[in-house]
Amino acid sequence: MTDYGKPELMAEGLGWPEGPTLQKDGSVVFVESYCSQLSVFRDGKVSRLAYTAGAPNSCVVGAKGELYVCQNGGTVGPWRAAEMSVPSIQRVEPGGKAVILVTEVEGIKLNGPNDLVFGADGHLYFTDPGTYNPANPDPSYIFAIAPDGTPRVVVAFEKPVFPNGLAVEADGSVVWDESYTGHVRRRRPNGKIEDLGKMPGANPILDGMKIGADGRLYVTDLVGKGIHVVQPNGKVDAFIEVGGAPTNCIFSGETLWVTDATVLAASDKPNLGGQLWKLTVPGGGAPTAAGSIAGRG
Fold it and tell me: E strand or H helix at 206, and its extent?
């Protein structure tokens, strides 16, 4: 059994921290949705890196140091941003300027992009589940943007499942978790979709996802208050307790950084009790890709 280190609290007072990424200098960048911004944890302190308006949901670093952002438009549960934006994929250049790259794909307007990741093919993959509302769900999609900026549909779901966390495996397979169903699924390069099963717990609400060096998936569970560790075949190996409502994670060597909203989004008032944790995962994470997407700026 893997001996995971005890989670260590690194920062608090955050406004729904989510979707972290790692810069070349080792600093951790993440979104603070309630603050409409990207923040950076560096030298033991959190500071604003860029203002995006709306409510950014996730970010990933590009090959040139730029950052790509899932912008849901300005919602966290019933909360609405003071300055709403257009659901889109944004690019944030060094210096902090945020520009909109994509607002629709093959005639489909984006509704609430949630998580994103680069594949080894240079494409930027992202989930678009819309607004979280199980009683009246929005359509669910996974999209990709080619390096030249051309977007395409990867998966158009027959029924809304709220595809949330996203990862791309070494062979190009796209893996995601679903907040409505509690399942993790994989789309092979040939288009075949595999169900890796429902995660343990009475009501798992899955959020972020990353891949370990050994191919296991690290899947955050908002309600479960921790991370499911899942083999590539779907067998659940372990559960790591961390935080109150962990939203996503990122590897830096054998350190796993975890963003934690601490509470579910049930109020129209912003909760600024979010936290940033780190813990040790022997073996660390799988290699990650970083591309660049052409577009206006």
Answer: strand 206-211
Whether the full predicted model's pTM is greater than 0.85, yes or no, is yes
Sequence-distant (6+) residues with CB within 8 A of 211 are 167, 169, 175, 217, 218, 285, 286
Q: Which of 248, 9, 263, 242 is nearest to 117 (CA)?
A: 248
Rounded to whole angstroms, how far apart are CA atoms 94 and 89?
A: 17
Listed residue (162, 156, 54, 167) closest to 108, CA to CA: 156
Tokens representing residue 81 in the block: 């941003």
The one-letter amino acid at 43: D
Q: 272 φ, ψ to 5°?
A: -110, 35
Cα(281)–Cα(3) distance, rounded to whole angstroms?
A: 8
Burial class (CB in 10 A: 0-12, 13-18, 19+), 84: middle
β-strand pairing of 151-156 with 141-145: antiparallel
Round to whole Å and give the CA distance between 197 and 201: 12
- Those residues whose C-beta lies under 8 Å from the C-beta of residue 243, and which sit 6 or more positions away, are 7, 225, 226, 258, 260, 262, 275, 277
- The model's pLDDT over 241-288, given as tens digits with 9 standing for 90+, comes to 999 999 999 999 999 999 999 999 999 999 999 999 999 999 999 999
